[in-house]
Fold Serine hydrolase domain-containing protein.
Amino acid sequence: MKQIILLILTLALAATGCQNEKQDSNATSLEVYADSLFQASIDSAQIAGASILVFQKDKMLLNKSYGYASLELAAPIPSNGIFDIGSVTKQFTAAAILKLVETGKLSLNDDFTKYLEFDTKGRKITIAQLLDHTSGLAQSPTGKDEFTQMTFDEFPHKLTVQLVEPKEFLHEPGEALIYNNVAFVFLGLIIEKVSGQPYEAYLKETFFDPLGMHSTSFGSNSKVVKNKVNGYNYDPNGLQQMDYLNYYIPYSAGSLVSSNEDLLIWTRALHNGKVLSEPMYQSMISPSKLNDGTPVSYAKGLVNFSNYGYKEISHGGAIAGFSSFVQYYPDDDLYIITLVNTIGPKKTGRFFGYEITWKLLDKKEYEQATLDIDTNAIQGIYTGQTRGGKDSDGKQAIEIKSIENGITRQVMGEEKIDTLKVYVGNNTWMDGNDKIIIENNKYRVDKIYNYYILKKDNK
């Protein structure tokens, strides 16, 4: 009997050992892949350095830094290095607004001019529409003179209001979704007005200190911050130092600095009920709809969409010298945080983040459907407002042509012609994760961070 028990224990230990070896092997495989991925970009001078953190089901799978915090001093990225995080800031601004809603100090349905003096020319724009980029507010700065003026102004975040007010709206509130930094600058000013505190002080008192986020703060050009890394811009002739940045220009749209470990603290707290009440959390992660009922993918400071079969709640950031990406996959309890101290030839934070994602998850490609429409009927030129449109007024024109078993798309003024190959039915094509719907003389595209509606030119 003792021999049988001993044999069972031996087999159980052996099985456990094999399982642990498999887990260790998987972790090592991920690290080896990440090492190769980042080192290749460092060796080719596409990035100066980076930090990657992967956390799943209460286990740290990877937390590693690569390359240099200072190319000039050949100083490596330190453990828990601090990077500018750009538009990842927006989720902190959104959470701050929702915290004020939670305490009854404002409402998402309030017209924002209740708190900020601004001539909307008769339009009502709600706090919610500032949060989800559907306000239609003009962008700023839009020219060299404006940028220079803001760079050397003592309060450029307040100057933004004056610069934007006379400009034409991009679209009527709620008719489209065009990513808008100005709206988030306005939200920061509203936070200050309602809370009675500077934006950065409110975030520190409300979120950073209670959560123990000691590496997160408002960016500064003068303050000495331990473990803060330098930023660089990619150039074919070699990496260049980042341009000077007045942090009060991006302000509440992109001014924060943080580390991957602090961002893990934040992301886990946010998505596990430690930051907001359940109703406010659901409001933050739930995209609304345009005026015509069209669903979008941008919620409030976060995008929420199906990424090749996986629910993803995330946000990226790009600012002078830095690129960042914070991803959360709720169904897989997976967190991936990527910080890069370079603006590169591609969206570097997002590029590395997704390379790691698809090493861990089985990417499910969109299924091709049988083409069941007459593509000749949708040929033509479609024009409308986009972010960074080619025309002087910010509009963009796209030509659609019918080919055998599909269509091509060309942005007017560009030589490149794309063939839209993945038809999924209902007049809809997928281009990566971009969803393109062409019907009723309209070209609609859900680009996750934007939703454009271009109308057919019937002349």
